[in-house]
Amino acid sequence: MTFHPVVERELRVASRRQWSYWGRSAAAAVVLLVVAWFVVLERSLSLNQFGHQLFGVTTFLAGLFAVLAGVVYTADSLAAERRDGTLGLLFLTDLKGYDVLFGKMAASSIGCLFHLVASFPIMAIAILMGGVTAGEYLRMMALLFNVLLCSLSLGMLASTLSPDSKRAAAIALMFALGLVGFMPALGGIVYWLGWKFDVPTEVRDSLFEDGYAWASPAVAYFGAFDDGYRSKPQVYPA
Fold first, then answer.
1. 117-124 long-range CB contacts below 8 Å, 24 or more apart?
2. What are the tens digits of pLDDT across the range 189-220?
């Protein structure tokens, strides 16, 4: 028996699906349209400034896509099997639970992975303009990839909690928003309580940055740029 047979089958099916090719082209075309729109609006900027701002806009949109990917792609993967009554049939075979889980995740998320990766070469245009360093680019690509995997995993978790597609999508959206803002918000409450009880500022800052802010992709996003990386290199340890 091959390793993860469902994953292998789904990848073979995806490789022959027309949307696997057209979807990547569509994703790259969207990023190119953003670049063209930015060129029209920001013609007065220098080349370095233009490249830096262009990189910021395109990576922000890609990060938003990565955060919401679980809501769109994987929130209904297992829920649909439960509604159709076919999930139990999969366990009548020799498949293990992780085979089914990884197979459904591969089937529902391979397209969004193609879409995100297709935008990476266009984002690299900012490096040629001189406004972005290679370190910024590599850190940002690693962040987007990790956020995408985390969002897809949260979508799979939401899919196991409810067979209803809308409810599963709502749960996945709640997880996605919590991924971005829950830990910093919790850290802000702790910071405020520390201020009310006269805790030293250094202790409050260290507690917020090391205990809460690191868990949010929003903090990691700003830390991927050179200015943020120089001030807080611990966000991206070598």
1. 117/24, 118/24, 118/25, 118/27, 118/28, 118/31, 119/27, 119/28, 119/30, 119/31, 119/58, 119/62, 121/28, 122/28, 122/31, 122/32, 122/35, 122/58, 123/31, 123/55, 123/58, 123/59, 123/62
2. 877 877 777 778 777 777 776 666 667 787 78
